[in-house]
């Protein structure tokens, strides 16, 4: 028997397990496939919401808390595992002229560093940016992370700390007896526990549906491209009309992304590749003719407003959620995990509980929870 079973070995599940292990709980993670191979691996790793002023404050509060912690967290992972997650303060350069004043006002109100560049200033900092762009707003402190390296380091850390990660172990059902979690059933048998955290990303709604609970979390596919570019081609994360280019340390440039509600399909399409490539070349003409090294898709856990569900499920002792992070699991993950740890351990939460509480947002879709 373990103290807590975490369902899902993505960034949210692993960060949650790390927090709970640090708090003294024994933790087992169950993953239906490979650890951290879904949205956690596939995303761009921008440590900020895209157009943060468009989002509800609960999202930005989670992001802001995590942004402060990330540099030390990544350095600790590097020291403990020898794997560098490549946290880099790239700056976030927004090229949408119709939102620039709003962006600057939003940043000023929150004491977030942001500057406006035009003409020579802009192109002096980004020489390969298309001459069609003459103005930009740069959020200078925004950083990025390299998702595959982050989750690899996190998994290595958890393994060293004795957290068991069981892959290819889909949960058939959460066992609930007289309103209390008593375990989870898998094809390999039952694991006894008094606490279960559902952190199954895009599959969380489907899992809870089997328990007679409705959760409005659904998969949203995102396709991305990786250009095999030269180092220094671009210096900042570039954002325009909802698409972004991210420069990596080794010179590769990531272009994302699509937003597609196509169920649980990971299929990539030539149409999406063409749209993404055209947008990339429009921003940075020097990418024209650069080899596209990879084209892939991931499934995000979409929730109605993008605000995740973090906390206990009403009327079921021991059942908790940490899911529905949509596009921003990486940037909100550290705060989400700390918030849930506080709720499980009875500590003071870092953020208002009601903003993320799932109790009022879940609705019964069956007369009773399966026993």
Outline of the structure:
The protein folds into two domains: 4-45 and 149-217 and 304-364, FAD/NAD(P)-binding domain; 92-140 and 220-296, 2-Layer Sandwich (D-Amino Acid Oxidase, Chain A, domain 2). 29% of the residues lie in helices and 25% in strands. The protein contains nine helices and 19 strands.
Distance between the termini: 19 Å
CATH class of the largest domain: Alpha Beta
Order of helices and strands: EHEHHEHEHEHEEEEEHEEEEEHEEEHE
Find the CATH superfamily of the largest domain: FAD/NAD(P)-binding domain
**Proper CATH architecture of the largest domain:** 3-Layer(bba) Sandwich
Structural class: alpha/beta
- The Cα radius of gyration reads 21 Å
Question: How many domain modules?
Answer: 2
Largest sheet: 8 strands, mixed
Instruction: State the helical fraction.
Output: 25-40%
Please, how many helices? 9
What would the CATH topology of the largest domain be?
A: FAD/NAD(P)-binding domain
Low-confidence stretches: 363-371
Give a verbal description of the structure.
Helices cover 29% and strands 25% of the residues. It is an alpha/beta fold and 371 residues long. It has two domains: 172 residues, FAD/NAD(P)-binding domain (3-Layer(bba) Sandwich), CATH 3.50.50; 126 residues, D-Amino Acid Oxidase, subunit A, domain 2 (D-Amino Acid Oxidase, Chain A, domain 2, 2-Layer Sandwich), CATH 3.30.9. Strands 4-5-3-13-14-15-12-16 form an eight-stranded mixed sheet, sandwiched between helices. α1 runs parallel beside α6.
């Amino acid at each position: 028997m373990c103290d807590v079973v975490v369902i899902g070995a993505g960034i949210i599940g692993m960060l949650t397990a790390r927090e709970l292990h640090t708090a003294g709980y024994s933790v087992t993670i169950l993953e239906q496939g490979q650890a951290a191979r879904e949205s956690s691996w596939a995303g761009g790793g921008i440590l900020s919401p895209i157009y943060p002023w468009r989002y509800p404050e609960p999202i930005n509060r989670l992001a802001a808390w995590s942004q402060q912690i990330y540099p030390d967290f990544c350095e600790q992972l590097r020291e403990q595992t020898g794997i560098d997650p490549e946290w880099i303060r790239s700056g976030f350069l927004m090229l949408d002229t119709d939102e620039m004043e709003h962006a600057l006002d939003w940043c000023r109100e929150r004491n977030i560093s942001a500057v406006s560049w035009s003409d020579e200033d802009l192109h002096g900092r980004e020489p390969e940016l298309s001459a069609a762009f003459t103005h930009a707003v740069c959020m200078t402190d925004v950083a990025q992370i390299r998702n595959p390296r982050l989750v690899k380091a996190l998994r290595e850390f958890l393994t060293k700390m004795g957290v068991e990660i069981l892959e290819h172990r889909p949960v058939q059902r959460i066992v609930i007896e007289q309103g209390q979690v008593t375990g989870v059933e898998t094809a390999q048998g039952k694991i006894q526990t008094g606490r279960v955290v559902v952190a199954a990303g895009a599959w969380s709604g489907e899992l809870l549906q089997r328990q007679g609970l409705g959760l409005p979390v659904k998969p949203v596919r995102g396709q991305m491209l990786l250009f095999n570019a030269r180092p220094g081609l671009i210096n900042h994360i570039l954002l325009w009309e909802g698409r972004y280019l991210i420069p990596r340390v080794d010179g590769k440039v990531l272009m994302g992304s699509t937003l597609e509600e196509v169920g649980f399909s990971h299929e990539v399409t030539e149409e999406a590749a063409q749209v993404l490539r055209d947008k990339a070349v429009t921003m940075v003409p020097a990418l024209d003719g650069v080899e596209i090294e990879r084209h892939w898709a991931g499934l995000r856990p979409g929730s109605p407003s993008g605000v995740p569900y973090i906390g206990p499920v009403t009327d079921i002792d021991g059942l908790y959620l940490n899911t529905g992070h949509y596009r921003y699991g990486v940037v909100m993950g550290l705060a989400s995990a700390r918030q849930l740890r506080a709720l499980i351990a009875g500590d003071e939460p870092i953020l208002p509980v009601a903003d993320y509480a799932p109790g009022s947002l879940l609705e019964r879709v069956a007369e009773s929870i399966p026993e």
